């Protein structure tokens, strides 16, 4: 069942459905936003979600005045999801000021909601190369003061730190894990506010995050897992190739190379590239034809021109394709020592490399498949995220129990 008439709006507007079990806006709120958008454009989409966020934030502040802290917390957190949903169609450079305004409202509502937990969950900063990464330590439910295993959660392209909270951290914290969520280069604040692009050497990023994690008094340094979703599945695997302190790695899904899809695209246009050939060698006419096709397709234009160029710091299509080639596990994956779980959903376009990744892993490994028949066959199992969380956390429970023993 589609809620939004526009396909791109449906992609982004349906994200919050995955967050309903974990404190996101209820279905009625999402459906009301879709009704308000109607046949409207990206401006209408943004305005409808922003209005929903403003309404929820106002309800939170009113509840707080009346000393209803739980209601205030729930409304603030729902508001953060609404603000986050509003601006994805606005991606690209130059950065739309409406995106920045909505993002700041998103983080403000998120911070106000988390501060109403007992004890409060407060934002922290992770030192990184003369900068700092925004992060939150979400404690295990009712066990926040205990030394517990930790799950570090990492994003890919589109999501921000608040998405990590609703998609994964709430479920893991209920299961007894502390969770460290953060936005790295090319993600959330680092991209929107500071213009720091994505980078392939995610092991460098995660090394700084693990350094921070092991300094926390409630974290068991021998039981730290890293979990990434979407492009974060690739980034998590890349990080695990050079981070021996990880006790487990979860890739949702397992992605070998970011450039492989671009190479296939070029070959369909007659480029004749060999599997190992560089995209930098593409003839100018092939690049021009690729760009014309991308520009004519609203979804491709958003993914590549609006999002890809911006997040990767690319100036044009050739530069973008060149940068993609560094996002690969080639020559590195054999270094992963910890147990690895790869998810594979029926209709996830990023899951095509799963068997290749699995075959190259030398340590303990498992593929966990999700199907359309159980409502979990889409990208990152977004329409049945609770099923994904249960199964993945069951696996992680077993791995951590063996590690503890």
Name some characteristics of this structure.
405 residues; 8-stranded mixed beta sheet; globular; 15 helices
Question: Would you mind describing this structure in some detail?
Answer:
With 405 residues, the protein is α/β, with parallel strands linked by helices. 47% of the residues lie in helices and 13% in strands. Strands 1-2-4-3-5-6-7-8 form an 8-stranded mixed β-sheet, sandwiched between helices. The model has no long low-confidence stretch (mean pLDDT 95).
How far apart lie the N and C ends? 46 Å
Mean pLDDT: 95
What can be said about the biggest beta sheet?
8 strands, mixed
Structural class call reads: alpha/beta
